[in-house]
Amino acid sequence: MPIRSRIIGLGSYVPERVLTNYDLEKMVDTSHEWILDRTGISERRIASEEEATSDLAYLASQIAIRDAGIKPGDLDFIIVATVTPDMLFPSSACLVQQKLGVQGIFAFDISAACSGFIYALSVADQYIKSGIYRTGLVVGADAFSKVVDWTDRNTCVLFGDGAGAAVLQADSGNSGIISTHLYSDGALWDLLYVPGGGSRNPPSEAMLGNRLQYIKMRGNETFKVAVNTMSEVIKEALKCNGLTPDDIKLFIPHQANLRIIQAISKKLNVPMERFKVNLANYGNTSAASVPIALYETIREGKIEKGDYILLEAFGAGLTWGAALIKW
Ligand code: COA
After folding, report:
1. Which of 4, 5, 144, 289 could bond 159 through an S-S bridge, CB–CB 3.0 to 4.6 Å?
2. Domains in the chain, please, with CATH?
């Protein structure tokens, strides 16, 4: 039997503060009805002023480590997928390592926006399958509330904060990560980006005055690309493994917009009941969206040993990807 990486523990964490569509009505020219109708989102969680991405990531990680029945000291590496790190450097993964109190291992961040968790899962899977490392922590965590322009109704209604974590371990059984499929298209970088704060537009009064520290998005175009890329990568993951949509117990898509998931369901001719949807409560939590949805799915007891699940996501970059898992 070849070595596979199996998910042996999951965790998630969302901040306490709830921001509803009705709260947003008081902040920008929008309505609960518009947001619900166009996105499916009712409310989202918002990190406090003191909370940064590594705090969310740490709390989700603690739950995943406990769920796995291991100790932090059993980890061989930590990968955090985020585009809202606590600081430009060090990596948020190093800060999670410090909070977990583990030494003698390596930790790094992956920047693939909303596809980040699937990218991180794929990288971790390669380390484990190769036999070099045995146990790894993979986290998707973002605090988009910190980079959202709360005066821009086109974007501020969409996002929320959170973290999801998975512990992967080498296993010689036939369950685990079966295949991962990653793509990006840098030519579409300007569909979704934060222009300021990096080396292109370093912090300055002019940068702040022009509001470059906030998310810019071309929503309509992003919508179309999201539907096409996620549908295609799902088809590829199925074809590559000789499976059909009927073989998949549950699809776990990135939770950006209910209408995106509905369009994918229509394109693939798979009923909506076979897609996990929880975006009403959290909005788009970027890299945290897929692992939070995965955590909830497993908690709900809907997946049995031997079931196939398919994770899929897209995000800024643009990036997209899928991961087929046999539970
Ligand atoms: N409240 C009320 N009206 C709003 C609004 C809001 N929060 N946001 C936009 N509008 C308005 C627009 O200004 C526009 O008005 P106009 O016709 O007078 O110009 C109108 O609603 C329609 O805008 P449009 O952009 O066509 O709406 P849409 O149905 O495409 O929905 C998004 C907009 C952003 C919800 C949708 O395009 C989307 O979800 N895109 C993908 C974004 C995404 O997933 N990003 C993350 C990727 S990981």
Report:
1. 144
2. 4-172 (3.40.47.10), 178-326 (3.40.47.10)
